[in-house]
Design goal:
heterodimer; A: about 180 residues; mainly alpha; Rna Polymerase Sigma Factor, Chain: A; 11 helices; about 0% strand; B: about 230 residues; alpha+beta; Immunoglobulin-like; 3 domains; 6 helices; elongated
Amino acid sequence: MKEEDDPTLVQRCRAGDRNAFERLVIRYQKPVFNVALRMLRNRQDAMDVAQTTFLKAFEHLGDYDGAFRFYSWLYRIAINESLNALAMRKPRAELDSGAADEGPGPDRAAEGDQALQAIEDALMHISPELRTVLVLRHITQLSYEDMAQALGLPEKTVKSRLHTAREQLRDHLLRSGAI
Amino acid sequence: MTDEQRMALIHAELDGELDGPRRAELARLLLADPPTRLLRDQMQGACSRLDAVGQVEPPSQLQDSILERLPPAPPARVYRASFARWRLAALVAGLLTATAIVYETVQGPPPGSRETAGTMAADVPISVDSAAFGGGPVTGRATLYRDKTGLGIGLEVSADEPVDVLITTESHSFRINGLGTPSGAASTHQTVALPGVRMQGQDIELSFLIGGRTVVHATLHAPSGS
């Protein structure tokens, strides 16, 4: 069966077809969850953010501008929800990996090596704005154009932020002896 | 070369954006300047570790938790927009009717029937395309027709439960709620005008839903021109 593209599914959603929205959830739940997970470093919070992201997307589908890619719009909601969730946390919780993460999930245990731990620590020491560009570029593999759409920023600004973020990542990994 | 230019080259390499001359420039720089080589290796190491993190599978209950919380109705704004379009269409229709009445009053009585006989054919709906659908809980036939008011769809639907029909084109969406025959004894006939939809070589998608779930699709084609 031919897989329908995003604009077709969005059009059907707008006409009230919940089945079409379910297809979009299936298609994007993984990257949206991963954006939130790497922003928040907590599976439960990431799940809450992913859930809120899709519910808000459904609720505001009438506002979505079809000139932009649907997933860029979806990531934009996910990023904003992640930033909101971070803002609700106590400042210390973000830096304290033990407090932020309620323990390794099954995938974490499987992944669980020191390299991942070092990267997660480094990410959480970078400001959320810079962490956002690292996550979008290196975890979800977005292009600069898509990142600019998702963040509502000029490409030049996105590039500049990413360069700064990479350099800070290198500094943190160097300090922790990971590279 | 400034530090900024050096870093720009390193980032461009990380992004795979180096063209031939700049790649050669970076290669020369790395050979000539060990601190730059170290910096570049560290940047590559940091980014490759981040790339290696990859994506983990979301919790298995995530999808269900989202779908369970979806409101039963489609987005409210869409309904409001549709309603606004229909109100606009009704307003335009009202204005046209008023204009016609004024015109007729000013122009006097209409011509005799013999004079209008040649134009009557335009009043008869002409079938443009049709498609049968079925095999599931919903069966029937959809016919795309054209008459003097524009395009429309005739639906003949048999179903044991109420069926909602979504009609979508490249630019418009229409929804009909509650078609079907609860007794299953006979089919329901419904005609739907498609205001604003033109013959421009486009597909018209029909989705038939029971309980909010699509159970069958049909496609009609509106050829361009004529």
